[in-house]
Structure to design on (195 residues):
């Protein structure tokens, strides 16, 4: 009976800590997370942060699950768009308009997914060691950079007048797009690993 009462008191005190505003933030938070979610972070100053740490963690889970779903759809559509781009390089321009239309959808979905991950509340803890999620985050900077520059590179293809400049612009666009796709695939695989 006493052990049950003691257990109940421990659980209640733990829940109280989770629901209090002053729950300590995890150590080793990424810099952007500290700026947004730290004890004096932007979301706290704007008073848009959830009122309890447990609510923050629930929000984090929802945001990251939606991030994963949108990312997988984006990866599939981007793969198809890359296939169409490679067909154009081989001389088949029959799907040029489809490739162009998909670029807007892929870019919008990618940036939406990235925002969900970037703006998510902090995790319970962050490890100093390298694990699959840390590598996943490192790769995200690579594919984010690629995704940010791809539309400009596509624009440059259409602005080039001479054939040498056109071929160089197409090659640059292709290399960046395939590198971006490759790092996105690797990031997706890493997110499913247990370590």
């Amino acid at each position: 009976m006493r052990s049950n009462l003691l257990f109940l008191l421990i659980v209640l005190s733990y829940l109280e800590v989770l629901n209090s505003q002053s729950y300590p933030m995890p150590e080793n938070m990424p810099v952007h997370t500290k700026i947004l979610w730290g004890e004096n972070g932007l979301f706290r100053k704007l008073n848009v942060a959830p009122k309890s740490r447990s609510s923050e963690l629930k929000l984090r889970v929802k945001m990251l699950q939606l991030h994963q779903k949108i990312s997988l759809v984006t990866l599939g559509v981007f793969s198809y768009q890359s296939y169409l781009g490679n067909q154009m390089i081989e001389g088949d321009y029959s799907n040029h308009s489809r490739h162009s239309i998909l670029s807007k959808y892929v870019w919008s979905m990618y940036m939406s997914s990235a925002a969900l991950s970037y703006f998510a509340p902090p995790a319970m803890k962050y490890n100093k060691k390298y694990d699959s999620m840390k590598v996943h985050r490192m790769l995200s900077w690579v594919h984010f950079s690629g995704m940010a520059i791809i539309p400009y590179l596509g624009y440059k293809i259409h602005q080039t007048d001479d054939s040498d400049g056109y071929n160089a612009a197409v090659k640059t666009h292709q290399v960046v797009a395939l590198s971006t796709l490759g790092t996105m695939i690797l990031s997706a695989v890493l997110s499913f690993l247990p370590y």
